[in-house]
Write a structure and sequence with these properties.
Length: 191
């Protein structure tokens, strides 16, 4: 989808996406922040974190509240403009395929429910770019395996692949520090 698809109706309307029910205090940002903090501890990572597809910066806000130097990137001009004023300086308007950061600028880049919005060709360009700007990557992909993940509730979901297929994409791109999980986040460092 083009960046203009991710507009007011997408983020604050009804029927176009699953995002419209989110706010700074709602799911799933606290759980996402828990996963990020656990990964930082597990791999002894210290430094800034980048949230790819940050939307209005709710995860960035939660991570910064926890003392983590977090930044975000999203290609929706609406989402960045509508982010809370206190987090907006840490958000950047950029597509995942062309990030305005230096090589290795972040210790960890994360994306939660972003991969399924990318067609496979775009994902094959974006994943190496995300790896370029970060030492480690954690991607949560909505595979649609469980109905409660509401894959079909978002018109911009365009790539439905299994977890194993997403992991194979990362492997064929030779991205060794890239972890791909599903929304249940079955990761060895999470209880």
């Amino acid at each position: 989808m083009h960046a203009d698809f991710y507009d007011r109706a997408y983020f604050d309307g009804t029927g176009k996406s699953n995002y419209c029910s989110y706010n700074g205090e709602s799911s799933p940002f606290e759980a996402h922040a828990d996963a990020v903090a656990a990964m930082l501890r597990e791999y002894s990572l210290d430094g800034p974190v980048l949230d790819i597809g940050c939307a209005k910066g709710y995860l960035v806000t939660e991570l910064r509240r926890r003392g983590i130097d977090a930044h975000g990137a999203d290609w929706s001009p609406y989402a960045i403009a509508e982010a809370p004023a206190d987090v907006r300086p840490f958000l950047h308007r950029a597509g995942a395929h062309d990030l305005p950061f230096t090589d290795g600028q972040f210790v960890l880049a994360v994306s939660f429910d972003v991969l399924e919005h990318m067609d496979l060709g775009y994902a094959r360009r974006a994943l190496p770019e995300i790896a370029r700007v970060s030492r480690w990557q954690l991607h949560q992909a909505n595979t649609g395996r469980l109905d409660i993940w509401r894959y079909d509730g978002d018109a911009s979901h365009c790539t439905r692949m299994s977890l194993e297929e997403w992991q194979a994409v990362a492997s064929t791109l030779d991205l060794p520090h890239t972890i791909v999980c599903e929304p249940d986040r079955r990761l060895p460092f999470l209880s």
